[in-house]
Specification:
This protein is of the alpha/beta class. Helices cover 36% and strands 25% of the residues. The protein is built from 8 helices and 10 strands. A 6-stranded mixed β-sheet has the order 6-7-8-3-9-10, with helices on both faces. Strands 2-1-4-5 form a 4-stranded antiparallel β-sheet, with helices on one face. A hairpin with a 2-residue loop joins β4 and β5. α3 runs parallel beside α5, α4 crosses α5 and α5 runs parallel beside α6. The longest helix is centred in the last third of the chain and has 18 residues. The chain is globular and about 50 Å long. The two termini are 32 Å apart. The mean pLDDT is 92.
């Protein structure tokens, strides 16, 4: 479903080059919820954004849904991105649009008719339980409701992949649980492959089957959390997995 082969990201500056992600290979299977965890600055979000080329890799290849995105034309990349939804930590909603308008935005870009957009927006609002907030603007919504609108927007184009960049970090524990429930429901009900970035191991444990542990721009270990007692091998993985909540 998702394959990164020796993909890396280097930023160039006058003061010298900075490698945010060193050459990295990764395989995410169809239908799983795969986690990426690490401390701040480990390269988690950069690696996630390389999957849909919001951060184009400096080198290496990225293949999603059988299509190599690296090297694709702008038109092919736009088309491929319709099957890759993304949820951000700080929602990224358009403040001058209602909840329904935010969800409709990617459908407008995709060229759907007004009737088609309205039908799909209603479906997505129903999925996240916000039918009564269709006409509300972001300023009128709670943090959890904003994130649910963001989830609905990410689902609007019926993606096969959902990228989640610390989607619960700005929320209180109760609301975070609600968001995790929605993401799990989406995975189970629609078979959407989820890649979930977090620095919080307790969140990761609740939703992910396998995880990649990142440290200083490298994946240092991949761990299967479905086993009863995972045995991390690296010091950073031991720290992240065994530290108290």
């Amino acid at each position: 479903m998702i394959t990164l082969h020796e993909a890396s990201k280097t930023y160039l500056s006058k003061s010298g080059n900075y490698s945010a992600v060193h050459p990295t290979s990764l395989q995410v299977n169809a239908g799983e919820i795969f986690g990426i965890i690490g401390q701040s600055g480990a390269g988690k979000s950069t690696l996630l954004r390389m999957i849909n080329l919001l951060e184009p890799p400096t080198a290496g290849s990225v293949i999603v849904n059988g299509q190599e995105l690296t090297g694709s034309s702008a038109a092919l990349l736009r088309q491929a991105r319709r099957s890759i939804g993304m949820i951000f930590q700080h929602f990224h909603l358009l403040n001058n649009r209602t909840a329904a308008g935010n969800i409709a935005f990617p459908l407008e870009i995709a060229g759907l008719s007004r009737k088609q957009r309205e039908a799909r927006v209603a479906e997505c609002l129903n999925i996240v339980g916000l039918q009564d907030k269709a006409a509300s603007y972001p300023a009128q919504l709670s943090g959890g409701q904003k994130q649910r609108v963001a989830i609905a927007r990410a689902l609007a184009t019926e993606p096969k992949v959902l990228l989640c960049d610390e989607p619960t970090s700005a929320l209180d524990p109760h609301t975070s649980q609600q968001i995790l429930t929605f993401i799990r429901k989406i995975n189970e009900s629609f078979g959407v492959t989820v890649v979930f970035v977090s620095h919080d191991m307790e969140v990761i444990k609740q939703i992910c089957g396998r995880i990649a542990v990142m440290d200083q721009g490298r994946i240092v270990e991949t761990i299967d959390l479905s086993v009863s007692e995972p045995q991390p091998q690296t010091e950073i993985a031991k720290l992240l997995i065994t530290r108290p909540a």
